[in-house]
Amino acid sequence: SGKSYLVKALSDLEVSNGGNALQIHSMDDYFMTEVEK
């Protein structure tokens, strides 16, 4: 449903802004990771 593409885009965006590359397999994991920070 496009989630993988979106997650990759978000990961690439974070990297381009000096963040770490994210190892994400689902949007739920992304949001869980963001909430824990």
Automatic annotation (TrEMBL):
User: Which superkingdom?
Assistant: Eukaryota
The GO annotation for biological process reads: regulation of telomere maintenance
Q: Which GO terms describe its cellular component?
A: nucleus
InterPro entries from the UniProt entry? YLP_motif_con_p1
Write down what this protein is called.
Uncharacterized protein
